Fold these 2 entries.
Entry 1:
Amino acid sequence: MSDALLTYDNLSVRLPERMDREYAIKDLSLSLNANEILCVVGESGSGKSLTALSTMGLLDRNALTPSGRIDFMGRNLLEIDEQERRALVGAKLSMIFQEPMASLNPFYRVGDQVAETFSVHTDLPKAEIREKVLALFDEVLLPNPERIYRSYPHELSGGQCQRVMIASALALDPAVLIADEPTTALDVTTQAQILKLMLALRENHNTGIMFITHDFGVVAEIADRVAVMQHGNLVEIGTAAEVLRNPQHPYTQRLLSAVPILEPRAARTDLGEQILKASGIRKTYNYKGARGSTVSLKAVDDVSITLRRGETLGLVGESGSGKSTLSQSIIRMVEPDAGEIVIDGIPLHTLRTRALRRARRHMQIIFQDPNTALDPRQKVGDAIAEGPIVHGVSKTEALKRAETLLESVGLDASASQRFPHQFSGGQRQRICIARALALEPALLIADESVSALDVSVQRQILDLLHEIQGRLNFGLLFVTHDLRVASRICDRIAVMQKGKLVEVGEPIDLFQSPREEYTRQLLSAVPGTAIGQLAMP
Amino acid sequence: MSPTFILTKILRMALTLLAVVTFTFIALRLSYDPAQAMLGPDATQREMEQFRAKWHLDKSLIQQYVIYVRNLATGDFGISFRDGRPALDVIFERVPHTLQLGFVAYVFAILIGVPAGILAALKRGSLFDRLIMVFSVVGFALPNFFFGILMILVFSMMLQWLPSAGSSSWQHFIMPAAALSLTLAGILARFTRSSMLETLSKQYMRTAEAKGVSKMRRTVAHALPNAAIPVVTILGLMLGQLVAGTVVVETVFAWPGVGRLLISSVSGKDLAVVQALVLFIAFAMVLANFIVDMSYRLLDPRSRSKS
């Protein structure tokens, strides 16, 4: 192609020895054109991020050696020297990352960090750079650029930090922008705004954008072309319409069918007795604001919810909506300021330390990140048996039950003798589920429990939760920011905004005729609502 | 930094010091009878009573405490039982010696330890890194009296280059300062290295690289300020310790500092001096802590807006 900006020619990245496979990327050939958004899709370990890092020269050269060619502006990026690379990177070739907050140096004001891109690559006077930075902030739609310029990263939201990062990447009008999962850590509404911004960039600057993502919803929103990667191989490439509507490779087909789509259903009818009644829950955080003033944040503001045996209640909202604080207040992991909580007939809000500890077996929680939720030095079997042992089950009995539980979450009983690091992320989340279920709780809370997982794994875990709930008949409080996931498994969905409960209803009602404006906004921000129709022939 | 912030910090320092005063007072009064200790086993009953009356030791413990605190408030730290001079004077004639030695050791430790740690982190896994780490372990694992005695053996006894005891010339500084700074530099190098490694692995370092920032600038402008924060904590604690003097090194080199005074006052059961010394050391630690807190505020923008 004549207007290719960036061309990969047989790019391979060899992994260090003793890894589970020889190559992280194998013989990748691909090109990115001007005025194009190319989405590179794949699950973790597919090599999509390493492709980006190889392009930028950010690979850890001690462990990984790329071979082949990456051609950009007439040069092979794999062969240029450090000085030449520094002149290109950040100026003509720029990149934004997944975690916007962590991508900015906490030590400096964000305006100065964007200004650095100019001062590194140009000789412009300071005042002029400042003007340009403010103009960039304006372009990426940051409110009040002057104030943002003076802010430190921790004073901004994730979405604002990502806009700052985009501003920095755009500073010198790059030919190519590589975006590595730039919206994965953001709320849906913020994600929708950032995606819109990407589309505007391509229009106004003719930029070639390589957008790396695992989310086909996002692909459907912005991609011109799609490249699908699996285990370091490019398995399929084509226009967005082709790949989404008529995927050729079985892996693409499997990924697409695992993509959660909005498929709201009605509540199940065979629900048991009420096992959770929380009323009037309040939690306020006080922290110091500017000049010693105290700022109060009502994280949960007079919220009441109920849950029955066998029922799944989805708790949805954006970050900062109070959904996590609420779910943790209900089981008094966070001490609520006010409110009554009855779980499985126990008036939890009245209990003191010891009684509260004894009551804990009625309620369990599964967290978001299975990698940090397990003690790395505790054998899996011991981790699962610990709860029952604490609550009076004999050790042999508890360990035997742990093995049965491991089997029921789809793992082998022998897994009990191994350590967490010997398992994949999805397997670890299964272990966390087994651990939570070991106490046969009446109430199970899943706090963003599938958000950190790949779509295909996500789907398996959701199916597992659903199937086990059918057998053990617990009430499931499912906290998520993903409306698509919520629509699949919930009997009722509660929408939270700024600490308040906005609306509660069965998915079928809530999604088809939302009563509240905020629910409508959330729904319209869900990426890839078109996939459902696209996939239909 | 708001005035209220500094005021609360100072108030907390005062409370800490009051707690120290109370605790040392109770602990020391309960542990032995000063009259018995000072006058010896042959003292008559009359002599003991006179001694007790003179130092208010015949009053109740509460009354003694009130008198003690009131005296402290007016700057009266009591009189040394041994030479009859104010305890504070006894301490203050030692302080300059300790400060001089401490300052020299501190500066050397920073000049050696911090750059060694930074370079080791930048060249992680290299021969240089491993050498630095070996020296670091030797530095803080070897008791410094051993290193001190070794130096005396070599430089004073065998080569006769340096004086082995006293503090009258600049040559006297070399060995005690070296003994002290070796330990400190070892700790500092290790701390700086791990803090630097942690910072280098941060996402914002990759952002800087992706912006085309040179390695030199990435290290100096992006990594160092962030890596400095935990190192400053250690530096502050070290500062407090150095003011307190180092008992072992001062003893080995017969250095007339605070550390040796502490030893001789405790063994001589000089109550007023021990009390005043403990207070003085506590004050030094609290002050060092305050300085660390303040430098956090200057270094870390995040700590300025959090409570």
Entry 2:
Amino acid sequence: MKFSILVNEGPYQHQASDSAYQFAKAALESGHEVQRVFFYHDGVNNGTNLTTPPQDDRHIQKRWSEMAESNKVDLVLCVAACQRRGIVDEGERDRNKKDATNVADGFRISGLGQLIEAAIESDRLVTFGD
Amino acid sequence: MSTLNIVNKSPFEKRSLDQCLSRIGSDDAVLLIEDAVVVAMAGTRYESDLKSAAAAKKLYVLTPDVEARGLADKPVVEGFTQVDYKGFVALVTEHDRVHSWL
């Protein structure tokens, strides 16, 4: 079955991104496809490569990036939520005249249309939030 | 058409479980995750409500979240089925729709 996941909360603040990751991992291990994870609201903070948690803590951003690389999971950050929170890729850097980028490997910035598309194309959309 | 309803807040904090149980259909299921798992423990004032809900509907609780809260050795309300994350995935596939009561 084809799954997509919506994450509405940031890492280390709420359990939502941990629950979403554990769900996605179990879905892949059960032989399902995870088409897309859409990060909305504070959820976009999952996708910054400036994250440096203590070594004995889980690295939430890296965990997602590794999942994207080994399982072809499409990690999409909402553009409007990113602009508010300072999550920047090359395109946004140039457009908004910033001097840095911080979107982590495997993540990309796009719009809400990607969430609607995921809901249409996937068999199930599972939401994790506050 | 059945729906899997996911509740993630304790009823001692938010009313989402009450709202969920009073609105869902008889062939729908409820899965408690995150802080909602505390109410699956026997002995709270919600026990009788949940027992009557369990008579008509399927009730599940996510074991890793029970364990994370130090409640693994506590008895669970009669009628609850414990699932791990793979069980959570299976429940999502077995129901036509999923709704998170956020």
